[in-house]
Amino acid sequence: MADGSPMISVRDLYRSFGEHEVLSGLNLDIEAGTTSVILGGSGSGKTVLIKHMIGLLKPDRGEVLVEGEDIVPLGDRELERVRRKFGMVFQGSALFDSMSVYENVAFPLREHTDLSEREIRERVAGKLALVDLHGIEEKYPADLSGGMRKRVGLARAIVRDPKIVLYDEPTTGLDPITTDYVDDMILTAKRRLGVTSVVISHDVASSFKVADRIAFLYDGKIVAHSPPAELRRSTHPVVERFLSTWFGKN
Amino acid sequence: MTGRMASQADTPPRRASPVAVAVEWVGSLVLEGVRTFFGVLALAGSVGRWMIRPPFRVENLFAQFDFVGVGSVLIVALTGLFTGMVFATQSWSAFERFGAESLVGPTVAITITRELAPVLSALMITMRAGSATCTELGTMRVTEQVDALETMAVSPVQYLLVPRILAGVLMGPLLAMLFDTAGVFGGFAIAVLVKGLSVGTFVLRTQDIVGPDDVVEGLVKAAVFGLAVMLIACHHGYYASGGAKGVGQATTRAMVSSAVSVFILDYFLGLLFH
Which residues of A touch B139 (CB under 8 A)? Predict the structure, then answer.
């Protein structure tokens, strides 16, 4: 952003489910135009955090600022306006299985623009080409591999050129080659579209490849937040232990 | 102290008495019913709010008319036809004992229009469209397709639920009218074609006794039942959780709640009309 304030700012966020406190006063700033990875173990609250960023969940306490606007008190209508700034890639892709690939990618354009069918077709073809998919417009999600579904999910997320793209565990369950491909896809989206990306992951290798900054989520708080090279030198015991599973003990 | 702990360890855990188990079971059923009732009411409020806000997705609405209404035509017509035939056969054997065979036509017509058409067509909607709706919405929920709609700034209530519930309200009475027609024709077929009652007697006696009020009562009931069964199916599917098993359990709960609700509502609507 022009004034240097963060694109997304999470302040003192608390959220419990029943007796279980998942987020305990979490603070995090996401700078515009960067790719930030939120790293943490399974069940650490990464998905809960990302759902707060787009207003799918409301916190018990705290603020979520998107371009300086607190989205926590907003109603349905105002949230719809804020959500138009976002695209989101889901862990399981969340493609509409009753629609073809073309209809899935065209969906946000049909809902929120007055583009003609020819313009929609061109835009869809362009975004599918960006994720290196060609000639699959008439296929249905059930006919695609996991990696292809992720790519269609990304094409759908970026079809309206959002300012922010959220990735929920984009490489979970993928083989190493497809994982590498998805990482490249995230880097390409940032390079070509200049979007602010927030990736939640527990995949250390993938995180170090795509991130400008990595935030480590533990015990409901961000316990480390720095560029990847600095994070490797972190002395926080949980971060050290987590990273040692990939980089080794030394 | 040690001795007491040892004796506690030796004692097998006490089993709850059958009465306590029964009370707990009934209590959990009542709680579940109350939770569902208020959940459905809250969802109805939300659907009402989103129904009057643009954009109005006419294409989605007609797709649901097709699914709930047109798709149920055959099953409702068949059910109506055979219900009318069975009812005429049974009432003929009762009425012929005291020479009142001419009352078979109005008896069949009045029972079908007031009660059987709305109730049985609502049950057909429940089984066919309600179960599919609940499963589809539940699958969309657990595979994050509902969340995906929200992140794309599209209200899932408006996009998914409003057309389904409107289809229930509007298609319910139309299917009940079809049931009326098929049922009365079934009664006519048995009374006139099989048992030999004259056409004039069947038609005139039916016209004498059955009035527009009876038909209207049935159609109002059908609209209320259509609303109720689709709301319940949508509620259970929309809030499903726990993967494939959770969706299956949600569908079972939706079917049971819908069927029971139809009979309970039928009683109270009956009181209202009479």
Answer: 97
Closest Cβ opposite residue B155 in set A76, A91, A107: A76
Least confident of A3-17, A19-33, B166-180, B239-253: A3-17
A243 and A166 in one domain?
yes
Final residue before a domain boundary, out of A156, A180, A201:
A156
User: Is the ipTM above a cut-off of 0.95?
Assistant: no
Q: How far is B154 from chain A (nearest CA, A)?
A: 7
B71: containing domain: 20-273
Same domain, A198 and A79: yes
Q: Give pLDDT < 70 ranges for chain A.
A: 1-4, 248-250
Angle between helix B162-188 and helix B18-51 axes, rounded to 10 deg = 110
Residue of B nearest to A52 (CA): B151
- A137 closest CA partner among A108, A91, A93, A106: A106
Residue A152 shares a structural domain with residue A167: no
Q: Do B150 and A112 touch (CB under 8 A)?
A: no
Domain that holds residue A170: 8-85+162-247
User: Minimal CA–CA distance to A131: which of A182, A92, A178?
Assistant: A182
- In this structure, the answer to whether residues A174 and A80 fall within a common structural domain is yes
Whether residues A96 and B144 touch (CB distance < 8 A) is answered with no
Which two structure tokens, joined as six digits, stand for A229? 């090279």
